[in-house]
Structure formats: C-alpha cells, structure tokens
Amino acid sequence: MKYYIETYGCQMNVSDSELITTILDKAGHSEAEDLDQAELIIFNTCSVRQHAEDRVLGRISCERARKTVNSRLKIAVVGCMAQRMGKSLIEKGIGVDLVVGVDQYLKLPDMIAELEDSAIVEQDSKQVYDDLVPKHHDPHCAFVTIMRGCDNFCSYCIVPHVRGRERSRDYREIEYEVEQAISSGKYDITLLGQNVNSYQYEGVSFPMLLDRLSGLNKQYRLRFITSHPKDLSDELIEVMARNPKISKHIHLPMQSGDSEILERMNRKYDYSHYKALVDKLRRAMPEIAITTDLIAGFPGETESQFENTLKAISEIRFDYAFCFKYSNREGTDAAEYDNQVSEDIRLHRLQRMIDLQRQITLEKFQDKIGTEIEVYVEALSRKSNEQVSGKTDDYKIAVLSGDVALIGSFVKAQVIAATAGTLICE
Ligand code: 5AD
Ligand code: SF4
Predict the structure, then answer these.
(1) Which residue segment(s) compose the domain that 255 sits in?
(2) How far is CA 76 from the centre of its chain?
(3) Which atom of ligand 1 approaches the CA of 226 most closely?
(4) Is residue 165, in this structure, part of any structural domain at all?
(5) Spatial contact of 20 and 131, defined as CB atoms under 8 Å apart
(6) Could you report the per-residue pLDDT of 296-338, keeping only the tens digit for each?
C-alpha cells in the first residue's frame, strides 16, 4: 500500500512518524509522494491543546471526500488523540477506519492487512521500540528519541495521561542510532524526551549519555529537548560547558513567572529556583541561548500573577518563548480547578506576552550584529538563489550569501543585521 503521513504536534510526533515509516516499509508498504497517490492516510495527532485536536478533526473530515473517488482509501489516526479518544474516533462517522495508540505501532501492518473499523490503544509501559531505526527524512537533522512517557503530571498537561509512564531507552540503542545518523551525513542531532534530565538507564544518567554520544570523530551538533527545571543538574551544566559538540542552547519551559501559579501547576520549583538556574547556566556559558514555554491564563491566574510572568520575561530576557493560551484538558487536575479564566482574558494576556517577548527576541538577535558565528548551511534561502540558510549552534536561523556548494558545511559568518527570527550574515 502507498501511505502518506500527516504529522501534528511536537518533535516526538515527527520522530514517531519516522518510526512508523520504518515499520511500514519493513512490511512492504511504501511512502506516497503526495496525498493524491495515497491508499492510506495516517494522521499523527496531538492532544496538548484543544485547538490542535480541532484542526485534525477538520482535516480528517476534509480528506474523507477522497473516499468517494477511491473506495479503497483508508484513514488511520495515530498519536495522542488516538490514545485519548480510541474507538470514539471511528464512531464519530468522519471517515476514520483505524485508530492506533502510541505504544501499538508495531501492530499497524497487521491492522492494515486484516482489520476494518478497529482501534488498538492499550498502553504498554515497557514499549520503547528498540531495534528499529526511524527513517530520518531531513537530510541534515535527525531526531532521536531517548525516552518515552512522562511521570510529572503537571496539572494542566494531558501528556502523562496519554503517553503513560516514563521509561528510558537502552543507551547502546541510542548510541547506535546516533552513529547511524551521523555516518549517513546528519550534522544536527536532537535527543528527544518529555524530560530528558531524568534519563536513566543502568546507571547512565543524561549528562553521561551526552558525553558518550559526543565521542565520534566528526563535526556535528548535539541538542536536546525538553529539560524540566526541577531536574536540571549541575553535572549537566558542567558537561554542556566543557563539551564543544553540545549545542549552547537550552529549552527550559518556565510556564509561569509566579510561584503560586507554579505550585498549582505542580511544577515543583518556584520562580527564584528558575531564575537561579538561568544565572548558573549563563555564568557557565555566557553565550548560551535560553528558550522557554509559557502559559497565559492558567485557572485562577490573577492580573498581578500574570504580571509576575511579564516581569520574569523582562528580567530573564529569553532568546525565544513559545507562548500558549491555557487550554482545558479533560482528565487533568487543572480542568477541575475553580476560577477558570475567561477566553477573552486568556487571549488578551497571551497577546501581551507575545508582544513583550517579540521585542526582546528582536533585541537578542540584534545583539549578535558585529559578531562572528558558525552556521551549518542546510538549504538555499527561500527568498533568493544567491543566499543560503542554516542554523547557528544556539539554534537561530541565519541567512548568508552563497550558493548550493555551501549546503552541508559549517561556515563562519559575520552578522550584519537581524530581524526577530533571522540573523543576516556575510
Ligand atoms: N494548555 C496550554 N498549553 C499547554 N501546554 C501543555 N499543556 C497545555 C495546556 N493544557 C504547553 C506547555 C508545554 C508545551 C509543550 O505545551 O507550555 O511545555
Ligand atoms: Fe506535560 Fe509537565 Fe510532562 Fe512536560 S513535564 S509533558 S508539561 S506533564
């Protein structure tokens, strides 16, 4: 069968889609170049916010029309929504034939061959998909999953409910996958987990894993997402500071700058702990880029508590922040909290947050003007054939003059101008 995967949500889903590609190719299926050729459309879905779910439901209903032209066409839903909603996705009558949960992807080939209108969503707290190397689609970057699930139960978050308990993969499997990726020409490896700082496998901790993965005799960058502030150790900071292969960038979700809200979010740190971590990271690596996630309008958030988040944004000056409007997820603790904040206020706070951070991001990018940076060139620029684009070590997008010959190499460049998303270099 020719299949086409449409992926939503986080990098973990991108990685899972690559894993599904490996599983289906092994079973003799092949990837369709576009939707028109597909005999099976797979939606890999996200449940973190209601908006993400609504978008996918809309997309599925839209693609259902293809079934009138091609009666053999099947639609499968996998990922977090599949896990959360199970068979009810089929019962909705929007054209879904198969539903496969996050721990059951090995069953996909059998389900395609034999079953109709079925859902397999049992959680398997041991499933880590060892012995399968995902087919990395990007020519330069590879995502490598090092752990699955989450045990933190932040009160707003659906992830621990759908992705189950945290488990780490065998470091030897991870090493093999990273080696394969690098020997096939990837230069930018991102290690994935909901909370990579708590990686632990037979005595190997996350900082130890980073050290083990950086020993290959080639130039490449190691990145990782996501770090939970409660588990960020001095040892990790020390390894990052001394190891040139580890990218000087950390994504450290703060969520709120108000300690009372953080407590009700069950984040297990307060603002002063978070700020102390930022100071420690910057002392050890003055050039480090720090990015974050922020939520506006958590239940019960008062105007002054929200302003504490704005103050924290101004004080810390993140390189970038992903800002989200709180979304109520059924089954989470926060869904039951009193004083849910109205949609209007949540939207308004979100906009204020975005506006403040956009200005800081611009200033942070402009601070780089006049400095020399190293860019890993990935592609021709979308705007001009005489420009190429790539990424800096601290995960910023850079464009510079040059042609295809530069693609796939590390280039030193001088920053001459900046916008709030791009460094313009020579
Ligand atoms: N509402 C809004 N944002 C959320 N996130 C997780 N759950 C929710 C929710 N219910 C955000 C957090 C997390 C990021 C991946 O998504 O900021 O870090
Ligand atoms: Fe969700 Fe918190 Fe786990 Fe991140 S650490 S996936 S926000 S529960």
Answers:
(1) 141-362
(2) 22
(3) 18
(4) yes
(5) no
(6) 999 999 999 999 999 999 999 999 999 999 999 999 999 999 9
Q: What distance in Å separates the CA atoms of residue 56 and residue 76, rounded to the nearest whole number?
A: 12
pLDDT tens digits, 126-141: 999 988 989 999 999 9
Judged on CB neighbours under 10 Å (0-12, 13-18, 19+), 241 is: middle
Alpha-carbon radius of gyration of the chain: 22
Is residue 1 classed as helix, strand or coil in its secondary structure? Answer: coil
- Same domain assignment for residues 110 and 211: no
The residue that leads in pLDDT, 71 or 166, is 166
Q: Give the separation between CA 58 and CA 63, rounded to whole angstroms.
A: 9
Ligand 2 centroid to Cα of residue 157, in Å, is: 6
- Tell me if residue 107 falls in helix, strand or coil: helix
Count the domains in the chain.
Answer: 3
- What distances in angstroms separate CA 385 from CA 26, 139, 403, one per listed residue? 38, 19, 7
| CA of residue 210 to ligand 2 center, whole Å | 22
Return contacts of 169-172, CB within 8 angstroms, 24+ apart. 169/128, 169/130, 169/145, 169/201, 170/128, 170/130, 170/201, 170/202, 171/201, 171/202, 171/204, 171/209, 171/212
Total residues found in the chain within this entry: 426
Q: In the prediction, which pLDDT does 203 show?
A: 97
Phi-psi region of 223 (alpha: psi -120 to 50; beta: other; left: phi over 0): beta
Pocket probe mutation, ligand 2, options 159, 166, 192, 228, max atoms within 8 Å of Cβ: 159
Q: Which atom of ligand 1 is nearest to the CA of 332?
A: 10
Q: Tell me if 125 is assigned to some domain.
A: no
When pLDDT is cut at 50, 70 and 90, the band that residue 47 belongs to is: very high
Task: Count Cβ atoms below 10 Å from residue 1 Cβ, excluding itself.
Answer: 16
At residue 350, the 3 state secondary structure works out as: helix
